[in-house]
Amino acid sequence: MKIIAIGDIHGRNFWKDIIHEPMDQLVFIGDYFDSYGEEFTAQQEIENFKQVVILKRENPDLVTLLIGNHDYHYLNGVDEQYSRYQDAAAGDINVVLMEALDVMQMCYVYDHIVFNHAGITKTWAKNHNIDLNNLQISINNKFMEDKAAFGFVYGINDFDGSDQRQSPIWVRPKALLADKIDGYHQVVGHTRQPTHRIQDGIAFIDVAGQVFKMDNADDFNWSNTQLEFKN
Question: Are 63 and 41 in contact (CB under 8 A)?
Fold first, then answer.
């Protein structure tokens, strides 16, 4: 099983470089919007996202589109605005996201590997009655039933997701590593890295312009590539 995962694109189109490569699954880890600085205009981000959605609709079994925090805050029913929120373009971004929501999800699981935007902690899963034996369906159903479960948890002296109670689109690496769910490896984005890193069974893949390849997900080498993780 060859899986290619693409970290936070934030409007970038480097994903086009690998779409013709043979693979069994292509997973976008979320955060299609809110580029850094003036890298892309909102309209460029929207057009790029539309092309990602077309790829998904034309290849429904091959492509998986996950949701990140920089997508979540534009959805209907979400009353939160995070960094780089584009107020002037929020309505247009909302339209394309809501039109694509039927082909988007919060997590994807292959065997014992779970792909999600930021990571799943035992604390969050317990607090929200997630069935760890049926993880993909349980989390995706939770999103459909209760979007607020994925919002940022305020009032706990946490300003960036460093608490284990934060959701799978918000938790930061140190909290995730300290409280990761049992029985799974995870592939996550959300926190920018200089290179792809693996620690304690978790792959951190938010690396600008690079994709993460698992040529054989059934026999992938999960050995640490970094012994001490630093945010």
Answer: no
